Amino acid sequence: MRITTIGRGSIGGTLARLWTAAGHQVTALGRDGGDASDADVVLLAVRHADIPAALAGVTGLEGKTVIETSNRLDGELPHDGHASNAEYVKATLGGPTAKVFNLNFGKLLEGAPQAPNRPDNIWVGDETARAAVEKLTRDAGMQPRHGGPLDRAATQESFAALFVAIVKDADSGLLYYRFATPEAI
Ligand SMILES: NC(=O)c1ccc[n+]([C@@H]2O[C@H](COP(=O)([O-])OP(=O)(O)OC[C@H]3O[C@@H](n4cnc5c(N)ncnc54)[C@H](OP(=O)(O)O)[C@@H]3O)[C@@H](O)[C@H]2O)c1
């Protein structure tokens, strides 16, 4: 796949490396912007406050399949009155959109392909984004878990606070998570 990543930090930089290693053609964009016309899939991996500027700085995004990763911290509200950042992105660009990779830690992504069992990666979003999300999740060493349509993105964004609280309470460092069948639990 031809993938354009917007944001070269913990999430964007790490996924760009993993997807390049998996054989994808990755173009990594940062604050200087660029063009995404030839991308099959776009990863948006910038902080909440930077999302509007990041979208405005890249041409050729309209109608693209977008994988959106942001979390909202400390009561930050989604942009332009939308229920979630992912729905703001969908309203702005109009293409297949998914909320994904916000419930995993950037520092743990690099280790996922070597983990003895695949960590899970919850996502919600458009069915038209499913093939890309699930392939790119697997190619990052994780197991996709679909939680429903894009109108659940606000729930997924809110769940990040709960996940962080679980991690702090466990007091054992950062965590992956996995769902299990009754036989495998
Ligand atoms: N880190 C995590 O563990 C984690 C986990 C789940 C979800 N998330 C979410 O994922 C998103 C990315 O997080 P991160 O940790 O990767 O952030 P980060 O390390 O701070 O990286 C953000 C990147 O966005 C770039 N950027 C800022 N403004 C931009 C613009 N206008 N156009 C293009 N790029 C721009 C920054 O460039 P500069 O380097 O030039 O500033 C930086 O490369 C955030 O919304 C975060 O909440 C993070």
Can you offer a commentary on this structure?
This protein has 6 helices and 9 strands, in the order βαβββαββαβαβαβα. With 185 residues, the chain is an alpha/beta fold. The protein has one domain: Rossmann fold (3-Layer(aba) Sandwich), CATH 3.40.50. The strands form 2 sheets. It has a 7-stranded mixed beta sheet with strand order 2-1-4-6-7-8-9, sandwiched between helices. The chain has a two-stranded parallel sheet with strand order 3-5. The radius of gyration is 16 Å and the shape is globular. The termini are far apart. Bound molecules: NADP nicotinamide-adenine-dinucleotide phosphate. NADP nicotinamide-adenine-dinucleotide phosphate is lined by residues 6-12, 30-31, 45-48, 50, 53-54, 57, 69-71, 102, 105-106.
Summarize, please.
By secondary structure, the protein is an alpha/beta fold. The chain has helices at 10-21, 51-56, 85-93, 106-109, 130-138, 153-170, and strands spanning 2-6, 25-29, 34-35, 41-44, 58-59, 65-68, 97-100, 120-125, 143-146. The chain has a single domain, classed as Rossmann fold (3-Layer(aba) Sandwich), CATH 3.40.50.
| Order of helix and strand elements from N to C terminus | EHEEEHEEHEHEHEH
SS summary, helix count = 6
Secondary-structure class:
alpha/beta
Number of domains as seen in the coordinates: 1
Net shape: globular
What percentage of residues falls in helices of 4 or more residues? 25-40%
Largest beta-sheet details: 7 strands, mixed
Instruction: Give me the count of strands.
Output: 9
CATH superfamily: NAD(P)-binding Rossmann-like Domain
* Largest sheet strand order: 2-1-4-6-7-8-9
